[in-house]
Amino acid sequence: MSAARVQGALRAASVYAALSISSALILTPLAWLVCASLKRNEDFFNSLFLPAGDGLLGVAWNRLTLHHFYRLFAELGIGRALLNSVFLSSITALLATLFAAMGGYALARLRFRGRRQIDWLVLAVIVIPPPLLLAPTFQLLFQLHLLDTMAGLILPACAPAFGVYLFRQAALGSIPGELLEAARLDGCGEVRTFFAIGLPLVMPMAAAFLLITFLGMWNNYIGPQVVLQSPQRFPLAVAVAQLRGVYYQDYGLLMAGTLVSIAPVLLLFLILQRDFVSGLTSGAVKG
Amino acid sequence: MEEPNPKQRATRHEAAPARRFVGPVVILVLAFASAVVYAAWPVRRPPGFHVWTFARLHHQIYVPIAEQWNLTHTPKVNLTLLSLPALEQRMLSAFLARTTSAELIEVERRAAARAFVGPLDAVGFVDLTDRIRAEKLDINPASFSPWTARGRIFGLPHDVHPVMLGYRADLVEAAGIDVSRIETWDDFFNVLRPLMDERDEEGLPKHYLLNFWDTPVHGEVVELLILQAGGALFDERGQPTLDRATNAHVLATLVSWRVGPRRVVADAPYFSASGNKLLLEGRVVASFVPDWMCNIWRFEIPQLAGKVKLMPLPAWARGGRRTSVWGGTMLGISRSATDIDGLWTFAKRLYLSRDAAHELYTRGDIITPVRSFWDDPIYDKPDPFFSGQAKGRAYIDLASQVPIRSNSPYGTLAMTEVQNALIALVAYAQRSKRYAADELTGEAARLLGLAQARVAARVARNVFLAAEPLSADVRESTP
Amino acid sequence: MRAAPGVSNSRAAWLLLAPFLVIFAVFYAYPLVRSVLLAFQQTFGPGSSRFVGLGNFRFLLSDSLFWTALWNTIVFTCGSVFIQLPLALGLALLLNRPRVRGRALFRTILFAPALVGVVFVAMMFGVIFEKRTGLLNLFLHQMFGWNLDFPWLETYVMPALILAALWQYVGFNMVYFLAALQNVPAELLEAARIDGAGSWKRFLHVVLPAIRPVGAFVVLLSIIGSFQLFELPYIMLNSTAGAENRGLTVVMYLYQTGFQIGDLGYASTIAWVLAILLIGCAAAMRALWTTEAES
């Protein structure tokens, strides 16, 4: 083998090594999480991952338990929290995406007075940091009697300026003006044109934005924590966080709750990741 | 970028038609399904009273009482055990947002005080002053202080929580030491000093005399010692008084115990496995034991049984206070509740009934604040864990000396400032090699002065407290 | 509603924009105005409020808790930008090499933590970072004889937070860099190689300038996100700010002030200071970037 080939092979090996080590480091906490949720509390600190024993591969498989999951669903009502999370996230995702698509399309493909001002407004709003709105929104929801309601959480999330911007870019890029002209000449109303032609053409962006919004609401903690009072309305983020005690922690229960909270989204997105990633990067790379 | 002709673009998108719809369809299905289930499974508050508590012990005592009540009364009682942070969070949230939480909330001292930071009409608890005064029961006056704001009482007191020193009687008596001669802290350290002569392999003392350190775990001990010495962090009007001379004296003394070659204290952290182990090993001879700590020792360190005894705290000056106070819980009725009379009746069962008081001591070692019940013979029963001492009576005898606890919402802030001052003072002592209390008082006073300024600035800017006439002496408000 | 080509169709446009604009007006614009008013008030919950003029701002200047929070937040932001982003770029460069097999798999694995909510990351790492019994100390102790009692959650909260945030977002940022790297014109790289430039020179003079726009975007995003750090330390430290307030951040202080003490007014004051800092940062970055691009 020539020196260059050896060098090349070494270089490739080190690349793979670096990537593998990084991947292992990233995966380790997740693997630990799964193990932790299956261990009994007595065994929790006896081993790093799975309890040692006489079973296959030196693991005491018989000491694993599903008890924590049982407790979560049967005694602690995590099922309800799961439902709340799915409900909140999917409804918010649908409404936010729809409104953003409509707005972005209008800004991109329709001509009207005030368009430039709205354009500018959308960009300006992106700069507002959410914590600024936390206190006054709480006050507003209180006055509207929307505290402790799902609507109080969903409505404020349905006007995503960043979404409008993304859809505007997508509409500019994916919807050929000629197609719209053709539709107009055929006598199609503008709104119908949007739903019939415009929306399907920005569907990749819609798919990505749906997932982004879904994820955002699923993992949202501070919003539900502040707005919701009744424990039956808590989504997973709040319900699981409240499982912690002060002097005593039920580690197995906590980790099982965490696993239940992240498994659905991880699964969903591993299947749909291409859309998600493309949506994320389109704003930065093309825009 | 050159625009490809529309037909090309359209066909390119047609090429992957199904794939781009998968995500949206999934979300659509989830939305629809969850909406249906959500509508069919409405959030319904179980009817009846909701009672929240945060201590497993209390929950265990209340369950039979609640069951009894539910047999003969409506509305029914729903008892819920929450973790303390969760309970605090939900309670505060509900008070601020003026939504309903639980009707009866059992809450610990620090959290309760937060309810008092706003205007009086926004306090989330019902004013119980008149109802309590109408009761014929004789309740320990000092027990009301943390739940009283602007002269009005907002909660039923749960406890008295006098503090004694729990010490290793086996070690002390083996050395032939007689603790009954101890009256002051100086006496304490002088009398017990021989126990520090036993050394380990490194030549350091095997036993230190007192469990104390400058870490946050011992923060409440600092406060209880300040109160014992006659100091205070707040006056009766709720104004901060961190820079009192007594406070500085206490801090300086504590640091003199902690630093230098004549150190007499060591760290056996409370509520931790490592701390319990150290107690068993005798690393510290004496530890601070309020009545509820007896219960923790009994269950967490059963191997101490028969080896420990209790003695009143050594006083700061001859003839001074022999006890202090640590912790506190109250039961409050939520202002948003409707059936206040029914709730009051149930609350009295939980807190002001002889049976509950009896259970509180037998299961939790806690002394009831209702003086009328102190004639229960259970308090005179010798306790084998504490080498046969009638510890119940011992605590009760100290009850009249228990100091007043402040109700200030800024209590936690003040304690943190004092804790930081203590840590700074320790560093100062180690840097300047000043180990005696009188050498440190000056610096202690300086540090506390700075802390006082910071706390006072915060208290002063609270417009709600300033707007209302501050209460008269808290002691006057108790029956 | 049909319009001839070239004629404006306002009605349709406003109809399509209506849902967004209405919700925006109610839940963005109105609260934004209210937050300005709130900054001059003191409240106890949303039900009681009093006007205090400049009192909040005056207090902020001497409020040691706020300055501690600000300092902690700045330290965290620097840690995130200067440690995490170079690592993300490095990983992207590794993944971008030609003939890397399993690229998609690596990318998926490295990106996955970004999907885990901050709350859940905090719950996991709150246990992983524990003294004596936590995964990290145990692992490091077995491997390198690391101090088993290393107080990640007490004295070394900041490194712990930076590590946890790194775990969560390094893959996320890597994906951005990867997309940018894949858009670097191959001809430029080829030309540089022909000119005899080594890989490091190629990186400095061709790759870096080409990915600068995305890099700037990622840095800005990172700064904005880091400045708003709250849930990670709050949950990791069990709803406290940690020993000596080492875990206190600006948004945590805002939250405690507004929703635990109840003073929404002072919370708004803090929020405005944060907003101005962030907008200033974004503007500064933009200015720096555009001038550099022009030069």
Description:
With 287 residues, chain A is mainly α. Chain A has two domains: 3-65; 69-281, MetI-like (MetI-like fold), CATH 1.10.3720.10. Chain A is 72% helix and 0% strand. Chain A has 13 helices and no strands. The longest helix of chain A has 36 residues, at 3-38. The model of chain A has no long low-confidence stretch (mean pLDDT 86). Chain B has a domain at 49-160 and 327-399: D-Maltodextrin-Binding Protein, domain 2 (3-Layer(aba) Sandwich). Helices cover 46% and strands 10% of the residues of chain B. Chain B contains 19 helices and twelve strands. Chain C has a single domain (64-294), classed as Orthogonal Bundle (MetI-like fold). Chain C has twelve helices and two strands; from the N terminus they run αββααααααααααα. In chain C, strand 1 (41-44) and strand 2 form a beta hairpin. The longest helix of chain C has 33 residues, at 64-96. Chain C has helices at residues 10-38, 55-62, 64-96, 103-111, 118-128, 135-144, 157-182, 186-194, 199-227, 231-236, 250-261, 264-294; strands at 41-44, 48-51. Helices cover 72% and strands 3% of the residues of chain C. With 295 residues, chain C is an all-alpha fold. Chains in contact: A-B, A-C, B-C. The interface between A and C is large, with 95 and 96 residues.
In short:
By secondary structure, chain A is mainly α. Helix content of chain A is 72%, strand content 0%. The two termini of chain A are 47 Å apart.
The name of the CATH architecture of the domain at 49-160 and 327-399 in chain B is: 3-Layer(aba) Sandwich
Total domain units of chain C: 1
Task: Give the low-confidence spans of chain B.
Answer: 1-15, 471-479
Give a count of the beta strands of chain C, DSSP E runs of length 2 or more: 2
Oligomer: heterotrimer
Any idea what the CATH superfamily of chain C is called?
MetI-like
What is the β-strand count of chain B? 12
According to CATH, the fold-level topology of the domain at 49-160 and 327-399 in chain B is D-Maltodextrin-Binding Protein, domain 2
Q: What Rg of chain B is obtained from the alpha carbons, in whole angstroms?
A: 28 Å
Biggest chain contact = A-C, 95 and 96 residues
* Arithmetic mean pLDDT of chain B: 88
As laid out across the biggest beta sheet of chain C, the strand order is 1-2
Q: Main sheet of chain B?
A: 5 strands, mixed
